[in-house]
Structure to design on (1233 residues):
């Protein structure tokens, strides 16, 4: 069970969190203006790297906030977490 | 009953406590402190099992958890049966009953030994080569026979009556292994004041020191130094004997299994350690020679352990075969104890002579003889030596398992012929024998350093200076030279593998199964590696070792399941409205009433009666499980516009609108009713199963996408109970109960805040049945009284309770969808004919873009239709496939989503998703069943209103059963001074969401500040404000201050904030006492020590399978809140955790 450092609450056991996919997937500000291929890219295409992955977690059974996290998908080590950018 | 091979004195056993036990039905005697193995050896019992494949007679090989042969089944009766236990690890207790495994009819006379004669057919990978002809015989004869013969013990078929507990713990230093290195590390760490846990798999702590009578440490004899050290540690360190560290998990989480004589029988610890000191010791290697597996052939050091620790002589006439010096000490000690050493056979040509013992240098064992016990050996020089015991010493293998599990790298150390720990990124150090350091002084010194101690030199006398030995040179392959005892793998098997082209160690391992038994190759891995290297003519150092995986030794399912069995497996959630006479169904973790059958009624009859009652008279339904979210803020309508399909800017205060919730992929995820209570306050309903995921979906967009919108979301699912009143007499029924609202002026799809039966309520005029109807939302605590009041008020009209079964039929008659039946994650609003829910004027909402994709607009998509079977008595099966007709194979056009018998229509009805459904209206299709085709007419997805019968009213209902009070939090078991649980009285609870300015206003009005430090609380007089999130507080105040929300609203004015009353959403308890934190840690993984969870700290967290809010209000007192439907589960968990601490003894 990973120990994940929530940017507000500090290190907490993994069972308090909900994984929320790759980070920084920007929703097009005007969806009507993008074509089907670009929209499908936004909905479904992800980097899926071997190694450093920037992803989101939500502290579901804690403060309830979404935050960003850098984790190595091979070693499972978390390099750091941060509050969302916007 | 005499123990022939027990020494007269000595050993760490309690000779004043003789114990009787049974093995294979015969009675024996041993002492407390014995293992089953030592007690059997004391009674001259060596034959204890039959090997896995060849059913060869086997004896005890070792004195530790590496034992491959002596697998027994413990059977204490009444379901206390455990197979496949190593006799060397079973502590002897009074009345122990054990039996050997894998033989028929008996251990001595086993038909399975036929397999020995068949051994040429059973070599490595035999199932790829033999038993192949004729092919039909495989399924009928060979496979069943092989499967029946496989395995060791038999799994029990009776429920396990023992209790298994879980415990979370935190420490600064976890020391794994309580031998000299581990004890030294624990001493150093404890001296620094750190939180230390020391564990050891043995029942006595001390490791090798338990068998060193001649050693002194700092002037003390080893046994006394050990006693002193343990006494010193007992005050400062958590000592865990009989506790195996079986696995390392990320971030230094270690799994331990503790085995107890009393309840709980096992405790699974999950320990989060800042630092780990691995002092797991080393395991002696056997030597590989022909017929090296007979009973009486053992590891050399094990014989010393049996002598000095247990006072047992393993034999009377002993041959020692060795590759290193350590076996010479064994020979000396056994000779001193009275055994005859017939010879020392030393494989090294330069072996020295020993006075009084024949030493044969440069020789090895070529063969052994004996069936139930070895009786002679032949050396490679042709000597025949009679003996009853052979002791083997092939060097030592450090136990690097946990180091390797922590992704530590290993390096091959030629001088000891084994792998030692190299580098790891985990905070773990290996010390002592498991790091390849074998001298006692070095173990003590390096252990001390690893524990954080400053340079200290222990003074040791009497310990031998033994030179380490590398790997023995492998002998030529032989069909009965065993490498892996437990899986019956010989060097001939390894030769087969390499000659068939398997050159990688991982392949050889899997092909021959060497190292794959329950002992995970502890006594075989390095010997197998050495043999393979020899066969391939490559150096051993060129091979990487195979991966180590948890568990280190087998762990029972009971340990992993822990308390989560029976009542504690899953929370069972009930609404506040009791229904003792209902038939229930599971909806997620909720129990919902399906039907209320009367005496003599079957379910279909009950459902029909309930449906007719709603259509003709009035029905009463508990809809409390549906999700409810309060959306508050100046941009609440704008936010809902982005999330749901409808337009809520145009929704007037006091009105409701049905809406769909889509994903950005355009598919329907949930539906519900959005009601506008005030300009900036909405009450949104969701499905029962979707409540949590909808809130999560909304929070995702609120926090990370639409961040400029000022709106906050608060779940109020459990705060409001929902009493639905549906039917032509609904208004008549509730009118006398409603105050402060004009029922006659409530149009359909409207909402009023009012009072019903004297309690504050939100009254919705909504209907899921198609009839005139209301949904009365009242605070949960008040629900039973309001329910009773409505039942009484409806009695003159024949009010009838109905459940989810009737609800489903009623809505299907109207063509209303149910999420999860008519939707499956691939269905769009257009597919269901629900385009009208989409507000065309909105520029964007979640899902809109995807709906414009051409694929989403195709006419041949699956569309919602109704189906009427040609034979009206036939009720279709939900999920059945529809075809156009004709012969098989046919293309499936869709499936039946909902299907019922409709009492109102007097026939069956169904809804279905069919390709191009709307263009098939009026046509005929067929439902393809395994045995027939059912003809159906395709109609629109709503069944003709006119045909719904409104004939005679149904018979008068029976008097409804008395309503029980809902479950309160009352402790079932007694209190104790260790842990006291007290239910707390209801209180006012407000969920506050606010920015900085609003928070200051709220704090000033309340009289207690809303703090900004995460997870901290402020209290003042009789109220408290608990930080739950960066813009979220829970405010607790006396229940009498019912005007507080209004006062806050007035003080805030137009400043954006959300104040939601959640008083009824949770119930609270106080848990206090010196063992309160311990009990919480049986289900909660947080560090609850005072320094990690200080006074005033508050947080949501996970407790078992529930979410709780935990708040420390005194050094030994916690306030704990849980959603009301989880309260019984919480209480059951706490009762389980504190059973050990009740002042009343366990029955």
């Amino acid at each position: 069970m990973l120990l994940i450092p929530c940017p507000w609450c500090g290190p907490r056991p993994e069972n308090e969190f909900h994984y929320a996919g790759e980070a920084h997937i920007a929703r097009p500000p005007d969806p009507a203006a993008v074509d089907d291929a670009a929209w499908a890219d936004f909905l479904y295409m992800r980097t899926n790297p071997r190694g450093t992955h920037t992803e989101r977690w939500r502290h579901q059974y804690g403060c309830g906030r979404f935050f960003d996290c850098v984790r190595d998908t091979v070693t499972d080590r978390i390099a750091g977490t941060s509050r969302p950018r916007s | 009953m005499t123990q022939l091979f027990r020494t007269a004195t000595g050993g760490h056993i309690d000779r004043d406590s003789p114990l009787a036990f049974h093995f294979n039905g015969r009675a024996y005697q041993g002492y407390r402190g014995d293992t089953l193995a030592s007690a059997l050896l004391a009674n001259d019992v060596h034959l204890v099992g039959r090997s896995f494949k060849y059913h060869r007679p086997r004896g005890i090989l070792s004195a530790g958890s590496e034992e491959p042969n002596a697998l027994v089944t413990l059977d204490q009766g009444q379901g206390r049966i455990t197979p496949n236990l190593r006799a060397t690890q079973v502590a002897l207790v009074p009345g122990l009953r054990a039996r050997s495994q894998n033989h028929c009819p008996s251990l001595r006379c086993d038909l399975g030994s036929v397999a020995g004669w068949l051994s040429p057919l059973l070599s490595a990978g035999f199932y790829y080569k033999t038993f192949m002809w004729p092919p039909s015989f495989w399924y009928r004869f060979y496979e069943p026979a092989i499967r029946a013969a496989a395995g060791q013990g038999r799994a029990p078929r009776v429920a396990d009556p023992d209790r298994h507990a879980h415990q979370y713990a935190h420490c600064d230093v976890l020391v794994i292994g309580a031998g000299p290195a581990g004890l030294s590390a624990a001493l150093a760490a404890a001296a620094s004041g750190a939180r230390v846990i020391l564990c050891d798999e043995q029942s006595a702590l001390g490791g090798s020191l338990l068998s060193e009578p001649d050693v002194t440490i700092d002037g003390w004899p080893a046994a006394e130094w050990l006693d002193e050290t343990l006494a010193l540690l007992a005050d400062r360190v958590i000592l865990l004997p009989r506790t195996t560290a079986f696995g390392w998990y990320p971030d230094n989480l270690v799994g331990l299994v503790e085995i107890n004589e009393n309840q709980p029988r096992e405790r699974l610890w999950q320990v989060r350690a800042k630092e780990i000191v691995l002092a797991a010791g080393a395991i002696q290697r056997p030597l590989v020679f022909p017929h090296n597996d007979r009973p009486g052939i053992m590891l050399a050091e094990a014989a010393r352990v049996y002598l000095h620790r247990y006072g047992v002589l393993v034999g009377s006439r002993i041959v020692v075969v060795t590759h290193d010096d350590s076996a010479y000490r064994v020979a000396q000690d056994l000779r001193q104890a009275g055994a005859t050493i017939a010879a020392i056979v030393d494989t090294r040509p330069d072996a020295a002579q020993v006075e009084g013992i024949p030493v044969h240098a440069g020789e090895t064992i070529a063969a052994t003889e004996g069936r139930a016990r070895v009786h002679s050996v032949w050396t490679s020089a042709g000597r025949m030596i009679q003996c009853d015991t052979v002791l083997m010493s092939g060097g030592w293998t450090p136990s690097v398992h946990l180091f390797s599990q922590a992704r530590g790298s290993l390096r091959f150390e030629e001088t000891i012929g084994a792998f030692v720990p190299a580098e790891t990124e985990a905070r773990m150090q290996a010390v002592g024998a498991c790091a390849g350091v074998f001298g006692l002084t070095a173990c003590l010194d390096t252990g001390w350093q690893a524990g954080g101690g400053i340079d200290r030199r222990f003074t040791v006398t009497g310990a031998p200076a033994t030179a380490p030995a590398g790997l023995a040179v492998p002998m030529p392959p032989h069909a009965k030279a065993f490498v892996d005892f437990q899986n019956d793998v010989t060097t001939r098997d390894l030769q087969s593998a390499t000659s068939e082209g398997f050159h990688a160690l991982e392949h050889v391992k899997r092909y021959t199964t060497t190292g794959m038994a329950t002992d995970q190759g502890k006594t075989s891995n390095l010997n197998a590696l050495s043999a393979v290297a020899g066969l391939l003519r490559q150096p051993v150092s060129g091979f990487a070792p195979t991966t180590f995986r948890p568990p280190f030794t087998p762990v029972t399912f009971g340990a992993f399941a822990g308390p989560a069995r029976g009542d504690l497996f899953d929370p069972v959630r009930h609404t506040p409205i009791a229904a003792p006479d209902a038939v229930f169904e599971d909806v997620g973790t909720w129990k919902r009433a399906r039907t209320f059958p009367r005496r003599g009624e079957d379910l279909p009859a009950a459902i029909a009666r309930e449906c007719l009652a709603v259509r003709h008279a009035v029905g009463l339904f508990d809809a409390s499980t549906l999700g409810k979210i309060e959306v508050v803020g100046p941009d609440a309508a704008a936010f809902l516009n982005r999330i749901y399909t409808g337009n809520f800017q145009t929704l007037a205060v006091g009105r409701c609108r049905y809406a769909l919730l889509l994903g950005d992929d355009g598919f329907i995820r949930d539906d519900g009713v959005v009601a506008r209570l005030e300009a900036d306050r909405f009450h949104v309903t969701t499905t029962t199963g979707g409540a949590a995921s909808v809130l999560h979906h909304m929070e995702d967009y609120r926090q990370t996408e639409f961040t400029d919108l000022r709106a906050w979301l608060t779940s109020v699912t459990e705060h409001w109970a929902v009493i639905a009143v549906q039917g032509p007499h609904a208004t008549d029924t509730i009118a006398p109960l409603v105050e402060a609202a004009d029922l006659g002026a409530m149009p359909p799809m409207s909402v009023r805040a009012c009072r019903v039966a004297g309690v504050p309520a939100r009254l919705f005029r909504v209907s899921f049945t198609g009839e005139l109807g209301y949904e009365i939302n009242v605070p949960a605590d008040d629900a039973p009284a309001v329910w009773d009041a409505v039942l009484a008020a409806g009695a003159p009209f024949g009010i009838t309770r109905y459940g989810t079964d009737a609800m489903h039929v009623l809505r299907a008659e109207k063509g209303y969808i149910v999420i999860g039946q008519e939707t499956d994650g691939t269905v769009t609003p257009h597919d269901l004919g629900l385009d009208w829910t989409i507000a065309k004027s909105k520029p964007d909402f979640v899902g809109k873009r995807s709906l414009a994709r051409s694929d989403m607009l195709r006419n041949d998509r699956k569309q919602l239709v109704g189906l009427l079977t040609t034979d009206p008595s036939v009720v279709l099966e939900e999920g059945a496939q529809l075809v156009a007709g004709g012969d098989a194979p046919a293309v499936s056009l869709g499936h039946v989503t909902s299907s019922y018998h409709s009492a109102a229509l007097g026939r069956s009805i169904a809804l279905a998703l069919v390709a191009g459904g709307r263009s098939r209206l009026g046509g005929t299709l067929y439902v393809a069943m395994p045995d027939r085709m059912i003809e159906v007419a395709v109609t629109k997805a709503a069944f003709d209103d006119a045909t719904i019968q409104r004939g005679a009213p149904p018979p008068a209902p029976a008097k409804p059963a008395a309503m029980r009070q809902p479950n309160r939090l009352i402790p079932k078991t007694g209190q104790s001074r260790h842990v006291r649980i007290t239910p707390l009285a209801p209180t006012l609870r407000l969920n506050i969401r606010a920015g900085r300015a609003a928070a200051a206003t709220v704090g000033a009005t309340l009289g207690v500040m809303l703090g900004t430090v995460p997870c901290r609380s402020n209290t003042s007089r009789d109220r408290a404000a608990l930080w739950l999130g960066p813009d979220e507080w829970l405010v607790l105040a006396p229940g009498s201050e019912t005007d507080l929300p209004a006062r806050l609203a007035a003080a805030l004015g137009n400043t954006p904030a959300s104040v939601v009353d959640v008083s009824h959403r949770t119930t609270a308890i106080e848990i206090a006492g010196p063992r309160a934190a311990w009990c919480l840690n049986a289900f909660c993984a947080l560090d609850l020590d005072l320094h990690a969870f200080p006074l005033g700290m508050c947080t949501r967290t996970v407790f078992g399978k529930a979410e709780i809010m935990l708040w420390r209000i005194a050094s030994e007192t916690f306030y704990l809140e849980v959603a009301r439907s989880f309260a019984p589960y919480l209480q059951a968990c706490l009762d389980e955790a504190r059973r050990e601490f009740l002042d009343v003894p366990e029955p």
Remarks:
- Chain A has a mean pLDDT of 95.
- The interface with chain B takes residues 1-3, 8-10, 12-13, 15-16, 18, 20, 27, 30-32, 34, 36, 39, 42-43, 56, 58, 60-66, 75-77, 84, 86 of chain A (CB under 8 Å).
- Helices of chain A lie at 36-44.
